[in-house]
Write a structure and sequence with these properties.
mainly alpha, two-stranded antiparallel ribbon, 15 helices, 2 strands
């Protein structure tokens, strides 16, 4: 796994460098909102979503440091951060810690956290507009809206404490988590100008690893520690949230995650050796501890 660790570190470095130049400075008035945006965006994280964009782009013949690719990964990380800030709010999951640090509404105020998340979302689309790629802007917007992340979040909230079918749970995970991950893969492919056939296979890969990512999150919420996870473990169970372990059990959840990763590997066989990093990213998703 050293190869994928090195790749993730490489992507994290270039992501942070790009974020540093596109995010507003803390010295710009009003300073409080810009401090919050930077506090949350630079709070850590493995930069898996940017890694998927760049790994797909490279596997399909693109260049690692392509400026449009760099702008895209910065915007996606900002959008991911916006979703986490809002997800942690008292009116949502009411979490006090994220990545081992106080959440935005704890480090600042609840009102500023709402506005900070909004600002990251808005600024991200301004950055995406610099690519001139309307297709990618549409792709990412769709993954976040009421046909994507927000839809999954709504059904997740409305399902708390209620009996939930496996079909509903998959809808929640497909939209709340997998939609943006799938968009990352598709954007990397679109930037490289792949064929429709290749895009379909990569979309399937994105679907599989996106769902596997959330299944593993469900498992980690039961089996990990607060120190490893960087947030309180067991919170899903306490809030009555629908998870794979709560519906199908732990052993079956682990089998589902492995089957999804195996399917993802089949989807990218057509890439041959060029898909090595995507292959390792899929394995990393299922073996990670946080």
């Amino acid at each position: 796994m050293s190869k994928i660790k090195d790749y993730l570190e490489k992507v994290a470095k270039v992501t942070d460098e790009t974020l540093e130049r596109v995010l507003p400075s803390e010295s710009i008035y009003p300073e409080s909102i810009h401090k919050l945006m930077r506090y949350s965006t630079f709070a850590g994280g493995k930069r898996i979503r940017p890694s998927l964009v760049l790994a797909t782009h490279e596997a399909c013949g693109g260049v690692f440091n392509n400026e449009n690719a760099l702008l895209t990964i910065a915007a996606i990380e900002m959008l991911h951060t916006f979703s986490l800030i809002h997800d942690d709010l008292p009116c949502m999951d009411d979490d006090d810690f994220r990545r081992g640090k106080p959440t935005a509404h704890k480090a600042f105020t609840e009102a500023l956290a709402v506005l900070g998340g909004d600002a990251l979302c808005i600024e991200a689309f301004e950055i995406l507009s610099r690519t001139g790629r309307v297709d990618m802007i549409q792709e990412i917007a769709k993954s976040l809206g009421t046909k994507g992340m927000i839809a999954g979040q709504v059904v997740d909230i409305e399902s708390e404490g209620k009996p939930v079918t496996l079909e509903t749970l998959q809808y929640i995970h497909d939209n709340k988590t997998a939609a943006l991950i799938r968009a990352c893969v598709r954007c990397g492919a679109l930037l490289a100008g792949v064929s429709d056939e290749a895009l379909a296979k990569l979309t399937s890969y994105g679907n599989s690893i996106g769902l596997a990512f959330q299944v593993v999150d469900d498992i980690l919420d039961e089996e990990s520690t607060t120190e490893q996870l960087g947030k309180t473990v067991g919170s899903d169970r306490e809030k009555g949230k629908a998870t794979y372990p709560s519906i199908v059990g732990m052993a079956e959840s682990k089998k589902i995650a492995r089957d999804l990763i195996n399917q993802a590997w089949k989807d990218i066989e057509f890439l041959g050796d060029k898909g090595a990093i995507l292959h390792e990213l899929a394995e990393y998703i299922i073996t990670r501890i946080n």
